[in-house]
Amino acid sequence: MCLKNGAPGEIRTPDHLVRRKSQGRQAAKKVEVAQQIERHNGELARLAAARRTFGDAIEQWGKLELSRRKDSGKKAMRAIPKDVIPVLNKVVLVDVKRGHVGGYSR
């Protein structure tokens, strides 16, 4: 496209097209940064879940599952605070092994 006020035969890109390209690059950069943040937050959540303790898991189990039972989970929780929590409360879930809970099975 030949525009006025340019050298004869010079082809110049209209300003609105240059601005549109620049805006497109800026938008793409914003999307890329947002994706990086999302990946970073996902990694942080994964790491936090990996560091969850046995006590945290029992607490969540009580809130989500046991609360639905007729007895509100009292029967299931009877032995846990007395026998299990003192031993495993602060143990990270990924570190709990069969030997830790072997003595508590029926």
General description of the model:
With 106 residues, the chain is mainly α. The protein has 2 domains: 11-50; 54-104, no CATH class. Helices cover 60% and strands 0% of the residues. The protein has 5 helices and no strands. The longest helix has 36 residues, at 15-50. The protein is rod-shaped and about 90 Å long. The mean pLDDT is 78.
The run of helices and strands is HHHHH
Distance between the termini: 84 Å
Q: Major sheet: size, sense and barrel closure?
A: none
Q: Spans of 5+ residues with little confidence (pLDDT < 50)? A: none
Structural class designation: mainly alpha
Count of folded domains = 2
The level of helicity is 55-70%
